[in-house]
Design brief:
The complex is a heterodimer of chains A (about 120) and B (about 110). Chain A starts with a strand and ends with a strand. By secondary structure, chain A is an all-beta fold. Chain A contains no helices and eleven strands. Chain A has strands spanning about 5, 10-15, 20-25, 30-35, 45-50, 55, 65-70, 75-80, 90-95, 105, 110-115. Chain B is mainly β. Chain B contains no helices and eleven strands. In chain B, strands 2, 4, 5, 9, 10 and 11 form a six-stranded mixed beta sheet that branches. A five-stranded antiparallel beta sheet of chain B has the order 1-3-8-7-6, with no helix packed on it. In chain B, β7 and β8 form a beta hairpin. The termini of chain B are far apart. The chains are: A mainly beta (about 120), B mainly beta (about 110). At the A-B interface, β4 and β5 of A face β5, β9 and β10 of B.
Amino acid sequence: DTGVSQDPRHKITKRGQNVTFRCDPISEHNRLYWYRQTLGQGPEFLTYFQNEAQLEKSRLLSDRFSAERPKGSFSTLEIQRTEQGDSAMYLCASSFQRGNTGELFFGEGSRLTVL
Amino acid sequence: TQLLEQSPQFLSIQEGENLTVYCNSSSVFSSLQWYRQEPGEGPVLLVTVVTGGEVKKLKRLTFQFGDARKDSSLHITAAQPGDTGLYLCAGPYNQGGKLIFGQGTELSVKP
């Protein structure tokens, strides 16, 4: 399968614990995005990378969230000291971008439940 | 405040009916995209519209980009249960690389 893959698919954790999600994009794609989505709502932008550079991070994100994309390949999203409000689906997407228009290919998401 | 406002948020119709979903903004977008998302899966691109006034058709789905590039619509003719899902419009924020989404329209088509 050469699509976007995310791991784990489901994570249940206790409040205060740290969690890390991994995303493997389509190999030739230069951009990688992270979104958060709650039930029945549209994806909320978190951050995106072009190659290994993190070009933008949402101001909605607290300092507890950090993302990396070493070597411009896979990416990780870490949430420290999780809170119940962090419970959501975390979606990763990649694209091959020329200019501002490009199709985003999404993974199936990592669902986080914070107890 | 949503930069892209979709309406309606929920739509429940019978098989065979027609429907239109709207995506509106006070900002100009260089392009808009429509995605469809099924439960437990990521969104999948349906279409990208780039030119003001552009109309694109995908089988029973018709997409239109407003002349001023501030709005778009999705019209489905003779809806089928397989059309059920969350329909999302998206566009590049400030014409940059950040893609923002509307809040979505949840469509349910009953047989």
